[in-house]
User: Fold this.
Amino acid sequence: MNIKGLSLNTIPPIFLPLRFFLTAPVFGIFAALLVIFYGSEMWSSRWLSSSLAITHLITIGFMLMVMIGALYQFIPVMIGQLIPGGERLVPLIHPLLIIGTLSLSSGFLLKINSLYWAALISLGLSATLFALSLLPLLVARLKSHLIVFILRILFLVLIITLGLGLYMLLAYANPDAGIIYREYTDIHALWGLIAWVVLLIMAVSSQVIPMFFVIPEFSVHYLKLFSILMVMTLSGLFIVDMNLLKNNFVTLLFQLLLSLELSFVVFYILSLISRRKRKLPDVTINFFRLSLLSLLLVILLWWGYQYEVVLPLDSYKVQFEYTIALLLIYGLALSVIIGMLQKIVPFLIYLHLQNLSFKHPESMMAEPKLVLNMKQIISTLQSTVQFYLHLTSYILLGVSMYFPQVVVLAGLFMLCNFVWLSYCLFKAVIIYNNNKNRILQFPEMKMNFGF
Assistant:
């Protein structure tokens, strides 16, 4: 493990990020139960209430929940400065995000306006508080660091993504206002699933992958350039999509640029992974490979469908839309997020136990050891089971779009995927609490300078 350049003196309290990590799989479980309950019905249209509920349980309840927790954990370690007001704001941000996600998904299913209003207020407040907590870091003159640079870009992307999402939610909450919102759906998804997810995954992966898998460091120059180009390209697509500039050649140019930019990220990171210095088998690296290959498959399928490279695919329009969504959400985003949790949570627990043992030095002599290594917190076997549950549910969900008979089986494996993840995370926290309590039984070291 390579921890060069990390500021281990500025780690936040352990349950500040952990509360997000522990909550997130619960929303995945809810989404899996809806897949089982509604079955193949949900594949008939992207506008069905069940489809919208499942999508937002995963994107907001799981993905955004983990991403916020990861930022609260990684930013202080990367830049040596805690996020201002984190300990005061997180106890507000976290429950507001929970309430907002549950209200939104329930609103889709029950079609009750008050639930949409509850979601609009809760998610709006949660996003605002989170943005305000990051703002001081964004305007401060901090040391040059890749994650600080990308964070500033992500802030803009977050405003655009959530702004579009809240605007569309307002249309649901107030249907009499006559707000036209469906035309914004694709661009909202593009900014959320491409800009926000890819940039955030790239930022965190640029630290996680070299640290845990001992590969060459990411090129700061390449990733900064990629971040700027992708935001510019998506801005161009936004202008085209809003019919502010109608030109088929310009549209094609922006689509081609975006495809090349995303392909570069895929092959660049895969090439770095292939140069791993630590050749010991590690199943968690497969989550990252699966994520990157899913993004590459999205690019190939999109061009194949758009220009009917193989055969006319109009009759499969709905399945194609769902396939792209599955590849982006379950393949690209969930794969890398679940993979990161297999590393981040054990590292976090190890770090806090180690720091605590320094204050109680006699605990270091205890047997069995109280400061466990990472594979004792989430074992290789646990991660292997996690990967195959995730991969199997991923494949079955894709197959179920074309062969609805397997949708319940897909939902069951999806349920097992999130239940197992929840079990692994809670077991890790139980290990932390037990060992922490045992360490605290040893006398604390008193500093005596002889004055």
